[in-house]
TrEMBL record:
Residue ranges occupied by any HTH tetR-type domain in the UniProt entry: 16-76
Keywords for the protein's UniProt record, in alphabetical order: DNA-binding, Transcription, Transcription regulation
Pfam families (UniProt xref): TetR_C_11 (PF16859), TetR_N (PF00440)
DNA-binding region, residue range(s): 39-58
Gene3D superfamilies: Homeodomain-like (1.10.10.60), Tetracycline Repressor, domain 2 (1.10.357.10)
Protein name: TetR/AcrR family transcriptional regulator
Length: 194
């Protein structure tokens, strides 16, 4: 007869150390086991904290998952400010391509679009917030006169990110600098002042 594995007592972590440990564990479980494996109990065990601490901080599993996804993606994709819109977009989308080329990045993207009834009402705001972070680069380009004043910042960002997401989600084709440069230049050509 197999006896259950002994469970180590949770560590006494608080504040930012606890938050970082829980979010890192959540991202790891989301990447390796998907939404089904990222229960509050599993995340708490992996992080070495009490389950009640997780509930106290995040309230729900959905809040925890969205915070983990948001924190991971925003840290991996800082919004550059080089002084040139093309350089900003190349840096940003090159970082996105590198992230999506990893197993963890692919898993996080799939989780961001995976159907899950508990997350559906939060998915729209999650993607809107990611888009709002990125459009800053385009708005600065418009303000500097690099792009036409009627440029739609969100559409330009989506025009570059969409093909990257499609490659990861549907075709599995590689992401490289040639692709990123081509997509950025194609999008910018349509937005330059005439």
């Amino acid at each position: 007869m197999n006896s259950p594995e002994p469970v180590a007592p949770p560590l006494r972590r608080r504040g930012e150390r606890m938050r970082r440990a829980v979010l890192a564990s959540a991202v790891e479980l989301l990447s390796s086991q998907g939404l089904a494996g990222a229960t509050v109990g599993a995340v708490a065990r992996a992080a070495g904290v009490h389950e009640t601490s997780v509930y106290r901080r995040w309230g729900t599993r959905e809040n925890l998952i969205l915070d983990a996804l948001t924190t991971e993606l925003d840290a991996a994709l800082p919004v550059p400010d080089t002084g040139r819109v093309r350089d900003d977009l190349l840096a940003f989308f090159s970082a996105l391509a590198r992230l999506l080329a990893t197993a963890q990045g692919r898993a996080l993207l799939r989780l961001s679009v995976e159907r899950d009834d508990t997350l559906e009402d939060r998915r729209g705001p999650y993607w809107s917030e990611r888009l709002d972070r990125a459009v800053v680069m385009v708005r600065r380009g418009v303000e500097r006169g690099e792009l036409a004043s009627d440029t739609d910042p969100g559409l330009l960002i989506e025009a570059v990110s969409g093909p990257l997401f499609v490659r990861v989600l549907l075709s599995g084709a590689p992401l490289d600098d040639v692709l990123v440069h081509g997509l950025v230049d194609l999008a910018l050509d349509g937005a330059r002042p005439r």
